[in-house]
């Protein structure tokens, strides 16, 4: 079963439409019209089950060494569920995720600010 098409994401107050551009064995990709934002959902099966939801973001910025030139820079942010083949129900896995989400969103994402600042 696929996600709704298109998906949308809001980054820095701007909503970006992400129509589906690719589907395949357990994988779907959604891409912005300018190609700078991509959402990927994938599932891999083997000794463990791995489920990934990933956002890749790119932008053009001035080159710090040659300010007259622009360069493309990118980052990604993703959530991975790495599960044994048996032993966790979807509800139990979601309960662990909910606890994790509560941890990192507490105090207006203070933990994320600390991680991005290099704390551990």
Could you characterize the architecture of this molecule?
The mean pLDDT is 96. The strands form two sheets. A five-stranded antiparallel β-sheet has the order 3-4-5-6-7, with no helix packed on it. A hairpin with a 7-residue loop joins strand 6 (48-62) and strand 7 (70-84). The chain is an alpha+beta fold and 120 residues long. The chain is built from one helix and seven strands; from the N terminus they run E-E-E-E-E-E-E-H. Helix content is 22%, strand content 49%. It folds into two domains: 1-85, Porin (Beta Barrel); 88-120, no CATH class. It has one helix spanning 90-116, and strands spanning 7-11, 14-18, 20-24, 27-31, 37-45, 48-62, 70-84.
What's the SSE blueprint?
Blueprint: E1 7-11, E2 14-18, E3 20-24, E4 27-31, E5 37-45, E6 48-62, E7 70-84, H1 90-116
Antiparallel strand pairs: 1-2, 3-4, 4-5, 5-6, 6-7
